[in-house]
Design goal:
With 488 residues, the protein is α/β, with parallel strands linked by helices. The protein has 16 helices and 18 strands. The longest helix is centred in the N-terminal third of the chain and has 22 residues, at 138-159. The radius of gyration is 25 Å and the shape is globular.
Length: 488
């Protein structure tokens, strides 16, 4: 399943009728050259509503699903905003800077036109992507369009996304119980299923002829594996989920899962699903633990907007003095309270772990099979230290009042051994201690965080703005207090 939308951008130039149309057309051509291949150039320059209708038909027939409306000069505020009203995909507005001709016949005044354009968008209630500084030369605007592409991909993906769940949120695990009404407001479909539905489907796959092929792929990925005996069940479970997605996708185009994974799962299925979750997430089909619907959604946004791998981790434990003083302080400039360990049982894809190994869920073994020397039903995790590099912590969450709130914080995974179990890493985020207190705690975020393996805060922030999320938090620098921070 191709789970990421293909963005097909197109550009329409607009021109005010009292300005030379040739100016807008020259600037559009220069912009398309600066951008390079992969963007549809609408040949119709829009001066009137009739032009707008013709241009709209052109980009529709070309299969454009992400539209750039370019003010080559002042621009006609009504036609240029009507196009966005008609267009079903994400829309970006940008404008041409002066400097490619004289300031007599060659002045376009698009700097002024963007103001009227934004006013008209507001009057029509149209949400659009407008760069931080939307006026520039051809090469500068080309860069703005490239920034728009991942945002457009995330918006397109969410509009055709189905979240498939199995089981209720775990008992006494209120962190994963968030109202789903905001998902419908975003145009996301939700299909909630019972654990029994999953078990019935799993049993139907018991003798599936594809199991050996999946097992062979797993064995190749894992290499030497102490717990190879669990692979038939894991392969069977992987086929259960992928077939379920294909059969239940319906009118949607993309899918994510949020599944129950304990405590009854181990006793009834005979394994933990972490490794399968890691494999599917590595193929851009996030499978969130503990029926964390917003966790799966956050992972998917991270894949689209961050254009990178993701995982879902607990913001889990502090870094001990021994590790900090010996391995972090001599090498990195972070304070100890700016570091923490991100952990989950074993759901991070193999490509993001150092020396990934099949393991067992130690915490569950303590309660489910404490007297067994060798694990049985708790096998199936993928364990290892997370590879070092830049990351973005991210979560979009449904608050108790059914509003949406989010946070973004860029940081890194440090090249430091964790000396622990699970899929785990030592993380560092500037001013993490203050972010932890005045965002994560103050705004009642749960312990699960999507981790995007890239610095992509800009794209995530712009995606949230496009979606209409007003409450977006980030890790404030030391000189900028939080609203709730005690100034004394």
């Amino acid at each position: 399943m191709n789970n990421i939308p293909e963005v097909k951008p197109g550009i329409i130039a607009v021109s005010r009728d009292c300005f030379p149309m040739a100016l807008a057309e020259r600037r559009r051509a220069a912009l398309v050259r600066a951008y390079g291949p992969g963007i549809h150039e609408c040949p119709i320059t829009v001066e009137s509503e009739t032009d707008a209708l013709r241009a709209f038909e052109d980009i529709k027939s070309a299969g454009v699903n992400a539209l750039v409306i370019y003010l080559g000069n002042f621009g006609p505020e009504t036609p240029e905003t009507l196009i966005a009203e008609w267009f079903s995909g994400p829309v970006m507005y940008c404008a041409a800077a002066e400097g490619d001709g004289d300031l007599y016949d060659g002045r376009g005044d698009a700097y002024c036109g963007m103001l009227n354009c934004s006013y008209n968008l507001n009057l029509r209630g149209i949400r659009a992507y407008i760069p931080e500084y939307p006026v520039g030369t051809a090469s500068e605007v080309a860069g703005m369009i490239r920034d728009f592409i991942p945002v457009a991909g995330a918006v397109l993906g969410l509009r055709s996304l189905k979240v498939m769940t199995f089981g209720p949120r775990p008992s006494d695990f209120l962190a994963c119980n968030a109202p789903i009404k905001p998902l419908y407001d975003l145009g996301i479909a939700v299909e909630e299923n019972s654990e029994l539905d999953l078990l019935v489907s799993f049993k139907k796959h018991e003798d599936d002829k594809r199991i050996p092929e999946i097992m062979a792929d797993m064995a190749s990925e894992l290499g030497e594996n102490k717990y190879g005996g669990i692979l038939p069940k894991l392969a069977q479970f992987e086929l259960t989920l992928t077939d379920w997605a294909a059969e239940h996708i319906g009118a949607s185009k993309h899918a994510v899962f949020a599944n129950k994974c304990w405590p009854a799962f181990q006793t009834e299925f005979g394994f933990v699903p972490c490794y399968v979750n890691s494999r599917l997430t590595g193929r851009s089909i996030p499978v969130a633990c503990e029926v964390d619907i917003y966790g799966a959604l956050s992972e998917y946004i991270g894949i689209c907007a961050g254009e990178n791998d993701v995982t879902l981790l607990d913001i889990n434990n502090t870094v001990p003095d021994t590790i900090y003083n010996s391995f972090i302080k001599p090498k990195y400039a972070y304070r100890q309270r700016e570091t923490f360990m991100g952990f989950h049982c074993g759901n991070t894809c193999a490509s993001r772990l150092k020396n990934p190994k099949m393991g067992f869920q130690l915490i569950m073994k303590r309660s489910l099979e404490p007297d067994k020397e060798e694990p049985d039903i708790t096998r199936g995790t993928l364990e290892g230290d997370i590879t070092p590099g830049g990351i973005s912590l991210f979560r979009l969450h449904g608050a108790a009042d059914a509003s949406l709130r989010a946070y973004i914080a860029e940081g890194e995974v440090l090249d430091v051994a964790t000396e622990s179990f699970g899929g785990i890493g030592v993380f560092a985020v500037p001013e993490m201690d203050r972010f932890y207190r005045h965002v994560l705690i103050e705004k009642a975020f749960p312990h699960h965080s999507a981790v995007v393996f890239a610095h992509c805060g800009k794209a995530l922030f712009d995606t949230l703005k496009y979606l209409g999320v007003d409450d977006i938090s980030y890790n404030h620098p030391a000189a900028l207090p939080y609203k709730s921070e005690n100034p004394f």
